[in-house]
Sequence to fold (85 residues):
Amino acid sequence: MAWLLPGLLLLLIGIIAIALLRLALCRSQVDSILCIQLLGTGGTGTLLLLATLVEQPALIDVALLLALLAAVTVLSVTRRERGDV
Fold:
């Protein structure tokens, strides 16, 4: 099972790269929100796998914080678009 983790880590890094590219090229607000969510999810998964690989439990806390920040970012972008700010 340990041989599978580096491959999954590379896959998640590829997903993050695609999300960054899509974020740079997107035209609509909905695409931006989905890319931000994908970056948060991919980053969280990457940090969790990395915490397992390097046996560093502090990275789990960082991953949870990243997931929280991604959700707050989407909320703020949505509120700004609706004009609630």
The chain has a mean pLDDT of 89. Residues 4-82 form a domain with the Helix Hairpins fold (CATH 1.10.287). Helices lie at 4-25, 29-54, 58-82. The longest helix spans residues 29-54.
